Amino acid sequence: FGIENDYSQYGNNINSNVSTEVEDKKQSDSEVDIKEDNKDKEKQKSEEVKEMPTIKSSQAYDIVLSLEENGIPKPKTQSTDDGYSWSSFTNNYSYYIVSNKKHEVAYAEFMVLRGDGEDYLKYCATLPYKNSQPDKAKKWIEDNIGKEAKTIISDVVFELSNGKSGPILIIKSKDYDKYLDYKIKNELNKD
Known about the structure:
Layout: H1 2-47, H2 60-69, E1 76-80, E2 83-89, E3 93-100, E4 105-112, H3 118-124, H4 134-144, E5 149-153, E6 156-162, E7 167-173, H5 176-190
Antiparallel strand pairs: 1-2, 2-3, 3-4, 4-7, 5-6, 6-7
Helix pairs in contact: 3-4
């Protein structure tokens, strides 16, 4: 029939057009994939925390001096490339604090070396900072000591865990882990 001839004459053009469209679509899809990969990398970079994040309105000296007044010896202080660290211990307790150059706390770890240490950890949980809730923090310690637990109180992370000797309380900026990831990645890329 004459229709067959009409289609056959267009068949090659249709197939080549479809083929071209498919190739264009594949190229377009791969461009989208590349753009999505780049967006993911840009998002990851934008999520990197390059400066030490701190607990707003906190001061390392507030807790260091309070602990000294309560019998923990004056801490060993070290200067780091982006701030300071303090550490001290007794037979029963220890602590380690990291701050930026303005002495704003980024990370604090309080360990019980002997005894139950609940009062020590409740006291440490009252670290003063912007919008802190000391009663809520102490209650959280009471309710969770001896457990693996984590909470956020006014944008500050509180974590309880159990060490070999006793409970451990970590108080840190919510972005502190991202900051450590960034620092580690940079150190590895130096080599």
